[in-house]
Each structure stands twice: as C-alpha cells, then as structure tokens.
Write a structure and sequence with these properties.
- With 102 residues, the chain is mostly helical.
- The longest helix has 29 residues, at 2-30.
- The protein has helices at 2-30, 39-51, 55-64, 73-85.
- Among the domains are: 37-69, no CATH class; 71-102.
C-alpha cells in the first residue's frame, strides 16, 4: 500500500510540474517585447510610408488598433526644438503642440 501511495504522489508531482512548464511556455509565447528604436529609423519608416503612398492607410490602421509608442522626454525636446528652429510647428498639425495632433 505504501508503494501505491508513493507512486501516486510522484505521478501527481510530475503532473503539476508538467502543467507549470506548459503554462510558462504559453505565457512566454504570448508576451510581446518592447524595443528601443533610434528616432532616425522611425523617420526612415515614415519616409518609406510616404514614398509608397501608404501613410494614410497606416494612420487608419494605427488608429483602429489603438497603437501607440512611447517617446522619452529627451526625444520630445529634440523634436520640439527642431520644429521650432525650422518653423514647422503649425505645418503638420493645427495645434502648436505636435503631441496633441490626432
């Protein structure tokens, strides 16, 4: 009887371990990673969209999927300074703050 009890305990322990391993694999597969992308590469991507005449489709797709990116404060200052130095603040968006443009 002791052998049966021990065998069932090891079987249960093995089953729990197997369930835990598959859960971890599933969670890792679903997880999306973040990436740090240099700003100039983002600009190249935007230029590609403009050149291929896909910018409007990409904007609509991003809005429909609630896509967003996070920009550091330093990058925001660089962009704002560039826009101010080259008198571009009102060109792309009616609001003087480019971050409020939709």
């Amino acid at each position: 009887m002791a052998k049966k009890a021990k065998a069932s305990r090891t079987a249960k322990a093995a089953k729990k371990t197997k369930v835990a391993k598959t859960t971890k694999k599933g969670a890792a597969a679903r997880r999306t990673g973040s990436a740090t992308v240099p700003l100039h590469k983002v600009v190249h991507f935007v230029r590609l969209l403009q050149r291929k005449k896909r910018a409007a489709k990409f904007i609509a797709h991003a809005k429909n999927n609630d896509a967003s990116i996070t920009i550091s404060g330093a990058s925001q200052r660089i962009i704002n300074n560039f826009l101010a130095q080259h008198n571009l603040q009102g060109d792309a968006c009616p609001d003087p703050d480019p971050w409020k443009c939709t």
